[in-house]
Design a protein that fits this description.
two-stranded antiparallel sheet, 4 strands, 18% helix
Length: 71
């Protein structure tokens, strides 16, 4: 299994590359963080991952089943 380091606060946003700002994640979970917008956070007791707060489903899926389609 391959493990990657991930910045809790991204380096481009001022996050330091220091142990307190880094977590290790496996490749499949790294994808969830980068592409799936999951957010790893460190608590006093543990590390948790928060799911995305919203999902962009696009205009077609956003319509209710009985809503008229835009033409």
């Amino acid at each position: 299994m391959r493990i990657d380091w991930h910045h809790l606060r991204h380096w481009a946003q001022g996050g330091a590359t220091e142990i307190d700002n880094l977590v290790t994640v496996c490749r499949s979970h790294q994808w969830k963080v980068r592409e799936g917008r999951w957010r790893p956070i460190r608590t006093d007791a543990d590390m948790v991952a928060l799911p995305p707060t919203s999902i962009d489903v696009g205009p077609a899926q956003a319509l209710a089943p009985d809503a008229p389609s835009a033409v």
